Amino acid sequence: MGNNPHVLVIGGGPGGSTVAALLARSGVRVTLLERDKFPRYHIGESLLASVLSTLRLSGAYDAVAAHGFQIKRGGYFQWQNDTWRLDWSQLVDAEAWSWQVDRAEFDEILLRNATEQGAEVIEQATVREIIFDGERPTSVEWTLLGDDTVRTTEFDFLVDASGRDGLLAKRHFGMRRQHPAFRNVAVWSYWEGAQLHPDSPEGAINVTSTEEGGWFWNIPLAGGRNSVGYVVSARKAAEKLRTGELQSYYLETLGDSKPLSEMLAGATQVAEVKAEQDYSYVSDRFCGPGYALVGDSAAFLDPLLSTGVHLATYGGLVAAAAIATTLRGEMPEEEALAFYQDTARRAYTRFLVLVSRMYEQYIGSDEYFAHAKDLTAEHAGDTPEASFTRIMAGLTDVNESEGQQQRTDTGALVSEVENLHSESANLEYMGHLDMSVVWDHWRDPLADIEIEGLRVATEPVLGLTRRARTEQEVAAVARPVLAPKDAETPAR
């Protein structure tokens, strides 16, 4: 490895852009190859509160905050016979909030931020081949749109943030596993003039279950549009999908739901119907010699709890810290990547547990919220409903500590997950996981994150360390200012 190590990032979505920006800010030479030309369309508009702190660390926060996205302060769930009003300001923190975003605009802000932080970003660049030296990737061959010339770029470390394409996990290693329990299809479109349930917190995502085991989302976006979609077992929608009757199936399903019919009364559909299926999967490993998988390239669970951008940016933060530490020669690569593997898998698996119970074992909100509380060991005074809301806001993942904070029963939690899917999903990979789950701190999301003595540090540069954090580091990840209640795009 030379004096000026080079990191190549494949993919410019939230995970790839976050890694690239953070590494560039740390003084690492970074090249990012993105297949598309931004802005480009992407589904997944509802952000968790945890995203704000990562945006601040990456340098993208001010641009996102100034853009005018819809403020989001929680969720409103009508699930089976229960109603959950999950107001973050009441159940989590008076200043807990995030955004509902147009992903084309949001993702472009993050990609441009990577350039501003010093990364070289090349769009419309398609990676054709990854070249290995033994188990370690060393270069890629790629082409630009409209030019058949094959270019070769060498690097010291590779970040695969290629999303569902999964260049490493799916194409090269063949180590991506579908979740049989979540073989769902999502069908959605956009509306003008739609309403949220009148009891919703400001800008809240509305989630409504159906008798056939599916559920709707209704997400308010800036400019008076709403994203409205339906998720159901692909088996139940198979005939409609084969015949291509998406529009009629979509409208028929909406019409069969009293809550959705009321929300869409007088509204106008303003976009064609889109659909995706078989999007729930996980890779056997998230890293290896000279490479790391970040975001959807590593895993994607399910849209139910809006975890996609959260897991991508959080994973990008931890991966960048591990990579930077290794490239500076401060820690063996294997040890630093093990830290990333553990933290990223914990975050993913926590949501797997909650989503699994909603789909397979939901018997009422009292039982469900009580289970969410069992996934935590801090904030002992929280009600079970508050425990669920903290997890749903994404405010649980970055504070997995030892020492002062109590750990949950790892074996019991692993056993429960395996029982949930013993007949329907392959969860062999979970046998080795440390499933300790504790609360993070909204004001300071990196406080006390520690695995076997390691933690993420932000000063003097981003990396992993065994020392206590400084006051400057604490300030660097302090909570962003309270979003105004009179935001330009209030919930309708």
Automatic annotation (TrEMBL):
InterPro entries xref list = FAD/NAD-bd_sf, Flavin-dep_Halogenase_NPB, Flavin_halogenase
Q: Which residues form a coiled coil?
A: none
Protein name in the entry: NAD(P)/FAD-dependent oxidoreductase
- Per the record, the domain of life is Bacteria
Family, as annotated:
Belongs to the flavin-dependent halogenase family. Bacterial tryptophan halogenase subfamily.
- Species classification: Bacteria, Bacillati, Actinomycetota, Actinomycetes, Mycobacteriales
- Gene3D superfamilies given in the database record: 3.30.9.100, FAD/NAD(P)-binding domain (3.50.50.60)
Matching entries from PANTHER family are given as: FAD-BINDING PROTEIN (PTHR43747), SLR1998 PROTEIN (PTHR43747:SF1)
Q: Origin organism of this chain?
A: Nocardia callitridis
